[in-house]
Each structure stands twice: as C-alpha cells, then as structure tokens.
Amino acid sequence: MATIVSLINMKGGVGKSTITVNLAWHFAAYYNWLMKILVVDLDPQFNASQYLFGVDRYEKILEDDNPTIWDIFEQFTVTPAGRSTIVDTYDTILKVASIRGGGEIDLIPSRLEMALSLKNPGQKARLLEKALQKVKNDYDLILIDCAPTESILTEAAYLASNYLLVPVRPEFLSTIGLPLLVNSMEDFRAQYDDHDLKLAGIVFNAISDYSPEEIRSREEVKKLAKKNGWYVFSAEIKYSRSYPKGAREGKPIFRTSYSRTDQAIRFRKFAEEFAERVNL
Ligand SMILES: Nc1ncnc2c1ncn2[C@@H]1O[C@H](COP(=O)(O)OP(=O)(O)OP(=O)(O)O)[C@@H](O)[C@H]1O
Ligand SMILES: [Mg+2]
C-alpha cells in the first residue's frame, strides 16, 4: 500500500512542484527503486502537470478533456440534467512514463477550474482521501503537490496523507510560511485527532552561495524547526538551472541535457534521506 506524502509550504515558489516531480522520477526510474508512483497535482496552477508532461503535451491533455483532480472534488455536482456525476479515480489517472524493470509515473492532473472548488468548499475535505483509497494498493508512493495557500485543499491533502514534506528556500522571508504551517497543522490536529499526520521534515532548496543572507535565513528556519521539534534534512538541494530547464522539457534533472552530474547526485542524496524518513 502506498505511502502518501504532501509537499507543502504556505510560501510560494519554494520548489514544491519541482521536488515532487524529481522525487517521482527518482523513485520510478532510478535502478534500485523502480517504484510505482502517483503524482497528484492539487494546485489550480497545475505546475506539476506541466512539469511532468511538458507544456505542449499538457495543452493536448486539456483539449482531450481528460477528467482531472477537479472532477474528484466536484463529483457530487448536480448537472443541468439533475443527475449527480460520480467520477472514478481511475478515469482521472494519466500515464506519464513506464520504465523498464517496472517503474511507473502516473498523474492525476490539475486544471485552472480547480480554483472554483475553493469558492464552494462544502463537505469536500474527505473526497481526495476517498479517491486515493481506491487506488492506493496500485502504488508504492503517492506524492501530492499542494498550492501555497491554505484552503479546503490543504485540509484534503492532510486527510489523505501520512507525511508532509516542507521545502524551504534559504532567503529573506523564508520563515514566513512556516508559522502559518504550524497553525494550519495544529488546527488540523485539533479537528481530526484520530488522523496520524507526520512531518517528514524541512528540506532546503535552491541553495547557492552560502551568502550571509542564506546563512542567516537557514539559521532562522532551523531555530523555528527546533522549537517545533521538526526534522531538518541534512541533504540540501542545490540551485541549478537544470531544474527550470527540465520543467520546460518535461524531464527530471538527471535527464536534462547538460545537467551536471554533481547536481543530480545532490538530489539523489536528498531522495535517499527522504526514503528513510518516510519508510519507503
Ligand atoms: N533547486 C532549484 N534550482 C533552480 N531553480 C529552481 C530550483 N527549485 C525550483 N526552481 C525554480 O523555481 C521556480 C519555483 O519552483 P516551483 O514551481 O517548484 O515552486 P513551488 O513551491 O511549487 O511554487 P508554487 O508555490 O507557485 O506552487 C520554478 O521556476 C523552478 O524551476
Ligand atoms: Mg507548485
């Protein structure tokens, strides 16, 4: 049965989608894993869908009107004909890649209309958990890429997950999303005290030059982590142009042309530590 991990931070642009996609590729395609991975794009901005498929292929998927994560949240919507449609989770799943030896990446894509679900949250928080319950046995790892704002979707992600992974960029204002996340998790735990949600840890992303600002931000984050008893990954993900390049091309860092091997090795180190933290 799959371990389910949500990538979350209430601050935007910290690398949630980039890390989701690269972790998926790592565990599906790296020779000693070859796992079956499902990525759930829970962000109305659909970055993970674009990163996995490449921008052009993603456009085609929208044209084909494939059911998306939106349909999972809107499944009880009453149609003009007066019927409520129920979407099957399997119908929302698209194949991204099959790797020789058994590794697989599948995706439940997102689309902009997802934002509409936020306007009418109703009793939607448990729908994701329910939808994933159905397909959980088909995967080893399910990664949920969250949006950077607190909403019904955050609650849905928490309810569906065993672990949270929190990427942080060591830069000015990096600590801004963390107190929000602390509150958000505390609210959640107060409301659902029967749900065991663990924190896999905080990972520093896009580190570059150990500038005074970077060092200072890192210290601030570490202090906050210590106060809350949060694990901070010892592996850190380096800044590399290969990440945005891969995003454009629909490739992981290790398949991007000109990607430096040491960057790919850095990411692999983090992925191995992640595997230990979430008991893969
Ligand atoms: N390690 C890295 N090195 C260089 N660029 C990176 C790195 N990680 C992420 N980026 C780039 O930073 C930008 C933001 O990354 P990403 O989209 O993964 O963040 P996010 O947290 O998912 O953002 P959002 O909150 O909008 O969902 C992207 O252009 C991405 O390519
Ligand atoms: Mg994102």
Task: Give a structural overview.
- It is built from twelve helices and seven strands.
- It is of the alpha/beta class and 280 residues long.
- The protein has a single domain (3-277), classed as P-loop containing nucleotide triphosphate hydrolases (Rossmann fold, 3-Layer(aba) Sandwich).
- A seven-stranded mixed β-sheet has the order 3-4-2-5-1-6-7, with helices on both faces.
- The longest helix has 17 residues, at 261-277.
- It is globular, with a radius of gyration of 18 Å.
- 44% of the residues are buried.
- Bound molecules: adenosine-5'-triphosphate and magnesium ion.
Give a quick precis of the structure.
It contains twelve helices and seven strands.
Layout of secondary structure:
Blueprint (H helix, E strand, L loop, with lengths): L2 E5 L8 H14 L6 E6 L5 H7 L1 H9 L5 H5 L15 H4 L1 E5 L5 E5 L5 H6 L7 H9 L5 E5 L6 H9 L2 E6 L8 H15 L6 E7 L7 H16 L14 H8 L11 H17 L3
Parallel strand pairs: 1-5, 1-6, 2-4, 2-5, 6-7
Antiparallel strand pairs: 3-4
Helical residue percent band:
40-55%
The H-level CATH homologous superfamily, spelled out, is P-loop containing nucleotide triphosphate hydrolases
Can you name the CATH architecture?
Answer: 3-Layer(aba) Sandwich
Envelope shape: globular
- Biggest beta sheet attributes: 7 strands, mixed
Q: Compounds present?
A: adenosine-5'-triphosphate, magnesium ion
Outline the low-pLDDT stretches. Answer: none
State the name of the first-level CATH class: Alpha Beta
In round numbers, the mean pLDDT is: 90
- Amount of beta strand: 5-15%
**Counted beta strands:** 7
